[in-house]
Amino acid sequence: MRHPMACDAALYSQCRRANLDFRRLKPQAGVEEIEEIEKDLGVNLSALSWLPGFYSIPPEVQIAGSKSYQEGKIYGMDAASGAAVAALEISPGDHVLDLCAAPGAKLCMLADLLKDSGSLTATDISAHRLAASRTMLIKYDLGNRCRLFLADGTTFSLLPLRGGVDGNATKVEEEKPALDNPDEITKRRYDPTGTLYVDSTVYGEWKGTKTAKEKKAAKRLKYMEDALDRVGGRESELIFYGKASGIVGMKVADVFRSHSLLEDEVSHNGYDKVLVDAECTHDGSLKHISKYEQWGWDTFERRFFNAGRMSSITSLQVNEQQLVL
Ligand SMILES: C[S@@+](CC[C@H](N)C(=O)[O-])C[C@H]1O[C@@H](n2cnc3c(N)ncnc32)[C@H](O)[C@@H]1O
């Protein structure tokens, strides 16, 4: 018997062949740059009248190997995803929270729309997917005002740093060591009896590539942060922050100071726009499923309908229901 998912996947493949694919260009792209991209891809780009910055290209055009893609002039993003972001009507200066951000296409578009204003805070529960978002922000040079937290969006309670780099973030009043100095971190985080005390070290500038010494320091920092989590109940991990995100110069304890959702402060200083993209808004899921035409539907059953997976879905749904109630 044919697997029910096989029918959907076949239908999807037919639709895909008949339809165009959509790609977003960096908004700054002028006529000359568009012509250059057309030449590079060997096709004419046709702008979507209802979605600024988006252009349709035929699905057979592979952009990943193109010069334009490698130079960060094109994003691989479909129109439905773009429409979800456009619906937020981002204005300059907004403080935006993206709660299920990875792998980061909408995050990049949000950062693009904010330009050099406001702030962008993003969480995802999956470490490797969030690391991909960080790579995208760095590739497209869009991370300046961003903070990325490995965190559960259902309990995330950190407010935006409204002042950004020039505003109300805790400032360094005196020369203090940056986080990548392990000796200073140890001295400041533990008293002589080894008891943890409030962290007064401050964040230095984000460093993308780490030397062996820095990796060792980061490992020790991670160990201490885990200890902090255990005693202080902190649940997020900061995995990236931009120069103008407000983090540089802040005390660790202040970065992770969470807020009760009932506090007045939240209504005054909370986020202006929140994106919760837990479900896919585009047809990417079907695209993944259609791969099982080649891999075999037995593999699909084994991976998705096994007893362990099914029981984890049941408990997830029960938890979500409780959350809604
Ligand atoms: C549809 S994808 C998001 C796509 C993303 N917005 C983009 O544009 O690239 C859903 C994401 O939600 C994340 N997720 C699921 N449950 C979560 C939770 N409780 N907290 C944070 N992230 C969660 C998953 O790890 C996954 O990366």
Automatic annotation (TrEMBL):
One of its GO terms (biological process) is RNA methylation. Pfam families: Methyltr_RsmB-F (PF01189). Keywords: Methyltransferase, RNA-binding, S-adenosyl-L-methionine, Transferase. PROSITE patterns: SAM_MT_RSMB_NOP. CDD domains: AdoMet_MTases. It comes from the Eukaryota. Signal peptide: none annotated. Residues 10-154 form the SAM-dependent MTase RsmB/NOP-type domain. One of its GO terms (molecular function) is RNA binding. S-adenosyl-L-methionine binds at D124, D152. Belongs to the class I-like SAM-binding methyltransferase superfamily. RsmB/NOP family. This is SAM-dependent MTase RsmB/NOP-type domain-containing protein. The lineage of its organism: Eukaryota, Viridiplantae, Streptophyta, Embryophyta, Marchantiophyta.
